[in-house]
Each structure stands twice: as C-alpha cells, then as structure tokens.
C-alpha cells in the first residue's frame, strides 16, 4: 500500500490544487492532503476552515483524507506512516524550490521520496495568492476555485474590509 501526502497551505484551495489531488489519488492507495499550519504566515482562512473546505471538495474521492499539521513534513510523514510526498509544479521556478525541499526531506528521512506532477496547462498560472488578489479587487474567482469555495472567499474579503474599516 502506498500512502502519500500532498502538503500545502491551501489558503484557499484552488482548482489547480484539486486537479493535483484528483490525479495523485489515482496513483496511490491513500492520499493525505496535509494542510500546513504555518505560524510564519497570516492566512485568510483558519486551519479548521481550510481543512473543512478541502474535505468538502474531496468528498467524492474515497481514498483522500484531509489532516492538518505543523512542523516538519518528514515528521508528519512518519506520524502518518507515509513514504511519498506529492508536489505540483507550475513552472521552472517551482521546480528549483521543490527540488531543494525534496532533497532536504530525503536527507532528513531517507524513506521519504517526492513525486512531482506537472500542473495541467489550464491551471499553470494559478495560485492561492492570485485568487486572493483577484478577490480583494472584486474580480470573478469562479474559474479559479471550486464552486463551494467562491462564496467563502468573498465572505472573508468582506470581513477583512470591515475589519480594516473600508466597508
């Protein structure tokens, strides 16, 4: 049985993320979507909200499990008895960073390997940062995120504006 982890912030989950999840889930016995709780960043969504969004958009994938984690990915891999990390690549710049991370992870735990999936061309430009920027400029994000996520992003943008006193 091959258990893999697809780690990320998923703030918010995009159609590009979902594409990688769907494709990776076809190649492994179990795919754990690991939602990183990164104390160094200020996400738009809480860790619990990101986990719930991912559970909602992957509910039709029986071998996909969504979990949050913090700390080192290799420690999470050991905790979940996973030996494979899945990463999506949009561009050469992604590969440079992801290769360094894969090599670092392998150095820390020789049992953890990394599998790279090239992002489908229709999502090669897409990132969570882009989605948030478009949303904060009142742009249409329906072609960037799964349908259940659109309203959640718009609500978070509205709340952020209220908090900043801009609405």
UniProtKB/TrEMBL annotation:
Task: Explain the purpose of this protein.
Answer: Reversibly transfers an adenylyl group from ATP to 4'-phosphopantetheine, yielding dephospho-CoA (dPCoA) and pyrophosphate.
Q: What name does UniProt use for this protein?
A: Phosphopantetheine adenylyltransferase
Return one GO MF term: pantetheine-phosphate adenylyltransferase activity
Annotated EC: 2.7.7.3
Which residues are tagged with the site Transition state stabilizer? 17
Organism, per UniProt?
Hominiventricola aquisgranensis
Binding residue positions for ATP: 9-10, 17, 88-90, 98, 123-129
Residues annotated to bind substrate = 9, 41, 73, 87
Q: Which reaction does it catalyse?
A: (R)-4'-phosphopantetheine + ATP + H(+) = 3'-dephospho-CoA + diphosphate
């Amino acid at each position: 049985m091959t258990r893999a982890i697809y780690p990320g912030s998923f703030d918010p989950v995009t159609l590009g993320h979902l594409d990688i999840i769907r494709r990776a889930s076809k190649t492994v016995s179990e795919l754990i979507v690991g939602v990183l709780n990164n104390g160094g960043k200020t996400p738009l969504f809480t860790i619990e909200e990101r986990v719930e969004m991912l559970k909602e958009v992957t509910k039709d994938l029986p071998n996909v499990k969504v979990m949050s984690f913090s700390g080192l990915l290799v420690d999470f891999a050991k905790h979940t008895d996973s030996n494979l990390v899945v990463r999506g690549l949009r561009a050469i710049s992604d590969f440079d960073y992801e290769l360094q991370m894969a090599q670092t992870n392998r150095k820390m735990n020789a049992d953890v390997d990394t599998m790279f999936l090239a992002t489908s061309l229709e999502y090669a430009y897409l990132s969570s940062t882009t989605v948030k920027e478009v949303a904060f400029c009142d742009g249409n994000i329906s072609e960037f995120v799964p349908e259940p996520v659109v309203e959640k992003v718009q609500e978070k943008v509205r709340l952020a504006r209220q908090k900043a006193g801009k609405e």
